[in-house]
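Complex 212.
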Amino acid sequence: MSGGLFLVLEGPEGAGKSTLARALVKRMRALGLDPVAVREPGGTGPAEHARAALLDPASEMEPQTELLFFTAARAHLVQSVVRPALEGGRIVLSDRHVLSTLAYQGAGGGLDEAQIRQVNAVATQGLEPDITLVLDVSPATGRSRQLREGKAADRIEAHDDAFHDRVAAAYRRAAGPGIHHIDASGSPDEVLDQAWRVLHQERPDTFPAGRR
Ligand code: Z5A
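Predicted structure with Z5A bound:
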């Protein structure tokens, strides 16, 4: 596959992005594909430092600082991992990307969408996902899944319900080239099947239809 494929998973916390990412990687590997899986923020030394600062409940940060930290982490990940992998013809599967900043710092934190896009254009040097799968679940379902898992709320998750409702609404209305919505309220296998159907529809030669 020349030019690679940039595939992004998005959605509120607890939507099942990490679970779906693991299942997709497993299924791709079974087909002989060799995807590179990353998550944001993180994936490089400096980006993991930014992640720790961003998610630490003890950090005090307003949305402008968050925007720059998340985007700095993204710049390093894109330039040092994502772009080289895509240029090598690999599939890159990213758990979150720019849509997260638009949803959390934009819709949630009240920052201007055009400014977020401008800063991110510097970070990504114009790289856009080929396919984005938005996992649709209510904030309540996502949070209850995290609680079942015993995950403590990080600094962003600790925002109030109104913040998370704005984030969820931004995800629900996300639209544009390559953006597909998946009903993530079903079982992990059902979510995987829906995701695979979209991948097959978009790239039938790379992702054949068929059994899991
Ligand atoms: N953030 C931001 O503000 N701005 C940005 O630009 C970026 C990020 C990039 C990163 O947190 C935080 O940074 C995030 C947004 C913000 N904070 N918030 N809020 P993270 O990396 O810790 O990830 P997260 O996405 O918020 O949380 P998560 O729990 O890892 O969500 P997930 O990956 O979507 O879910 P999961 O780990 O796959 O599943 C959660 C639990 O549900 C687990 O026990 C699963 O077994 C279970 N699960 C998964 N799928 C299902 C289904 N289908 N049914 C039932 N149970 C399921």
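The chain has one domain: 5-202.
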